[in-house]
Design goal:
This protein is of the alpha+beta class. The strands form 3 sheets. It has an 8-stranded mixed sheet with strand order 1-2-3-4-8-5-7-6, with helices on both faces. A 6-stranded mixed sheet has the order 14-15-19-16-18-17.
Length: about 800
């Protein structure tokens, strides 16, 4: 259960709202149907229904029939900020326990099992208060012994088996500071069974197999201690929030608290916060809302509302001067700078997010253009994280060769100073809002993202109409207001964390006590499981993709084959040119493709091009794999023709830039050195590649340093200009007609009358393995990470369906 997953979603879905104008656009309306009351909001792209049951349970629903499935999130309005100070990590540990079943799920004999579980709980309470080492060992031996007996009544993973039996996918959960969220993607005909299982699951907590699950949490903590980025993150929070639990404690908890867990406190947390008036069920998919609310009410309506403790956030002291911290670890160096802001529901937080986007939006921000585009730093970024009580903005980057972290920090801060002086284009504000709308449209093509938007609205305590209104409010910001806000809020009030390469002498590994392996009833079934399994669900009639009907195969100019699919969902398009060449054909192709990002044309500089695409609401990219090159353009369909025109201009007239190439080569060499410090690259790329292919593989068959330095800029621009002279195919998804697509490409996609066949690619045969080999690399870390590879049979397309089934069954949720 990876609790940091929420960080990714928190960045993407910061669509919270605040008090403002134009509420009438998203006017809420109350409806009555079959005895239930629900609210809808005008102009809602999700056409959501929001119910509140009599016990206070919130139910969010949006129908999206792209597949006969339903994405479900059960969100609890409590996270690690609600942990008691003397038992941190409790909310996260409870998340794990909720997968162990109840008095009905996961037990072969609850009466006898309960007696033993209660004994274990009481022993843990004594254990956590005992300081004598020998006495602690004796107590844990008792806990271990009784746990072994209790395990004989446990049915291992029965909750997961139940979910597997109804066809659930992605069964998981995550915990962050203000929420704990439980995830399942289920077939649309299994909503009734899902609701019955989940209502039972959230009705009580049973700390089954507690001390064996502790081992999993210990391992998760130890893996976190090996993450340099986690150290940076926790240091920033600790320095920004000296009083608030955002910073005074971490989601996974301290080593000391993990060594001394309390079942009693975990149960208290459950019965305090896991109540219907502090929960939300968020659904997106193929279902009938009128039927779904009856199913949910029948199962979850039995839960009783309780008073939820009010969390009163402490008032943090003002930061009056920069606070600098150094963090050490084996990974590459970086610098992070953070500012603290008020609640994510305030106008100040929205302005913070606008400033963050002006700095970096991936395309035309000041950091994007002035630092990344000009290759003054590696990977400069800015992002805003809006939480319920406070918000924060982080900017950061990695140094280039010979560059100090102090120099990177100075460059980053200089871009903020430009905002304070008003040195940014006013059109950027509107472009940011428009591109935010585009991103939202893209996200709403996914059931997962649609349901997650509900989770965010619920977690922040925002009404859905206020949540939807954010883009319109941000569109009202003026350059004058942004400049005034920046001058008021971006001063010497920041935190700096320097991630330096070196030994971390502060790491304290979580010591694992001796845990005897337990014997559990893997093949037993509870009465609940048997009863649920006997219930029949209405079958779903399968609909298989038919390439002869579901896509149009058309022929464009010069016999270029194209696959066309009309987008009837929104106003976005995607256009791809695909070539069967790649770095296995010529390693310079990868370099040329990367180089394109730093080039302009005779009409536009590289920076101007970025801005022009961003104004249009379009993004472009050319990506090279080992065997294919993907030339991609996407964005607002209203900008399709000017976007294609601009993109084709770049492809056909990219202007060589010797300095950009020299900087690119220097950056590539620095990134290669950084990769040698990255444990994930070492293990999952380098070592796996060596085990499969030996010393010569696509992974290390790269342009050597002397080869990189010899390449001339014009050689790379020629590769770019000649890309579309090779045979290629087109993929298009968007609102245009096939004739409109053909007309636009015929006008701008200039190609020779006869295309060149793609040249053959270099082959890297796998090594023959006739014995077990073990490869290892020493790395400064708490844990050991292992990858197991076994030699399979040669590729056979006829085996793909059964192979996929095998992998899903044995490697997936079952």
């Amino acid at each position: 259960m990876k609790y940091l997953v929420i960080l990714i979603f928190a960045v993407f879905f910061t669509f919270f709202s605040c008090q403002g104008t134009k509420k009438e656009k998203y006017q809420p309306t109350t409806h009555q149907e079959n005895g239930y009351t629900y609210v809808t909001v005008a102009n809602d792209p999700l056409k959501a229904r929001i119910y509140t049951l009599q016990n206070g349970l919130k139910v969010y629903m949006t129908v999206y029939k792209d597949a006969p499935r339903i994405q479900t999130y059960v969100a609890i309005g409590a996270g690690s900020k609600n942990d008691p100070a003397f038992a941190t990590g409790l909310a996260h540990y409870l998340e794990h326990i909720l997968f162990k079943g109840t008095s009905k799920i996961g037990t072969a004999n609850w009466t006898e099992e309960k007696v033993l579980i209660d004994k274990i709980e009481s022993l843990y309470e004594i254990y956590r208060k005992t300081t004598d080492v020998k006495l602690r060992e004796e107590l844990y031996h008792q806990i271990d012994s009784i746990s072994g007996k209790a395990a004989t009544f446990a049915i291992a993973n029965e909750y997961d088996k139940l979910m597997g039996s109804i066809g659930a996918q992605g069964t998981n959960a995550y915990t962050f500071v203000e929420q704990t969220v439980y995830v399942n993607d289920i077939p649309s005909n299994q909503l009734g069974k899902w609701a019955e299982i989940e209502a039972e699951r959230f009705g009580e907590v049973v700390p089954r197999l507690f001390h064996t699950e502790l081992e999993a949490v210990y391992e998760e903590k130890n893996r976190g201690l090996d993450s340099d980025q986690r150290k940076v993150w926790e240091t920033i929070f600790a320095q920004l929030f000296k009083k608030h639990t955002y910073g005074t404690q971490t989601t996974i908890g301290t080593v000391e608290h993990l060594k001394n867990p309390s079942i009693t406190e975990i149960k208290k947390f459950f019965y305090t916060y896991y109540n219907p008036n502090n929960m939300a069920i968020c659904l997106s998919g193929d279902f009938d809302p009128a039927e779904a609310i009856q199913i949910i009410d029948k199962n979850f309506g039995k839960m009783k509302a309780k008073e939820i403790p009010t969390f009163v956030p402490p008032i943090e002291s003002e930061i009056t001067k920069p606070v600098v911290n150094d963090v050490y670890g084996p990974d590459a160096q970086s610098v992070s700078i953070a500012y603290r802001f008020p609640s994510g529901t305030t106008r100040e937080a929205m302005l913070m997010e606008m400033v963050s986007a002006i700095l970096a939006n991936g395309h035309a921000g000041l950091i994007d253009i002035n630092l990344n585009q000009k290759q003054k730093v590696l990977g400069g970024y800015s992002y805003a994280l809006r939480l319920k009580d406070y918000s924060l903005q982080m900017i950061g980057g990695n140094p280039r060769e010979g560059q100090s972290l102090e120099e990177v920090k100075t460059l980053l801060l200089s871009e903020i100073e430009k905002i304070k002086r008003g040195e940014f284009d006013e059109w950027l504000i509107k472009a940011i809002v428009n591109n935010s709308k585009i991103e939202r449209m893209k996200h709403y093509e996914s059931n997962e993202s649609r349901a997650d938007a509900f989770v965010t609205s619920f977690t922040m305590g925002m009404n859905w109409n206020e949540f939807l209104n954010e883009n319109d409010l941000m569109a009202q910001f003026t350059k004058k207001e942004i400049v005034e806000f920046a001058n008021k809020n971006y001063k010497e009030n920041y935190i700096v964390v320097n991630k330096r390469t070196g030994a971390d002498t502060t790491i304290e590994k979580v010591p694992k006590p001796i845990i005897t392996p337990v014997t559990v009833n893997r093949d037993a079934q509870s009465v609940f499981y048997k009863k649920l399994s006997s219930q029949q669900a209405a079958p779903i009639k399968p609909v298989f993709l038919d390439y002869t009907k579901d896509f149009d195969k058309i022929t464009l100019q010069n016999k270029i084959p194209a696959i066309y699919k009309k987008n009837t969902t929104n106003g976005l398009f995607e256009l791809y040119y695909i070539l069967d060449i790649g770095t296995n054909t010529d390693p310079k192709i990868g370099l040329a493709v990367e180089y394109l990002d730093y080039l302009g044309t005779s009409k536009f500089s590289a920076a101007e091009l970025k801005k022009e695409f961003y104004k249009l609401g379009c993004s472009f990219g050319v990506y090279s794999g080992q065997d294919k090159v993907y030339v991609m353009l996407s964005g607002l369909n209203d900008s399709f023709e000017p976007g294609v025109k601009l993109f084709e201009e770049l492809l056909s007239n990219a202007k060589p830039d010797d300095k950009a190439l020299a900087d690119l080569v220097a950056g590539i060499l620095k990134e290669r050195r950084d990769s040698k410090l990255n444990k994930s690259v070492i293990l999952r790329n380098a070592m796996v590649s060596y085990a499969k292919y030996g010393p010569k593989s696509a992974f290390n068959d790269l342009l050597k340093e002397h080869e990189l330095r010899k390449i001339e800029a014009k050689d790379l621009t020629n590769i770019i200009k000649n890309l579309c002279t090779y045979q290629h195919r087109v993929l298009y998804y968007g609102p245009n007609s096939s004739s409109g697509l053909n007309s636009t490409l015929e006008k701008y996609h200039k190609i020779p009358s006869k295309l060149i066949p793609c040249p053959p690619q270099k082959d890297y045969p796998e090594v023959n393995i006739d014995k077990t080999n073990v490869y290892f690399v020493n790395y400064d870390m708490v844990q050991a990470e292992v990858v197991l590879l076994s030699k399979s049979i040669p590729y056979n397309k006829d085996l793909l369906p059964i192979s996929e089934l095998f992998n899903q069954y044995f490697g997936g949720d079952m």
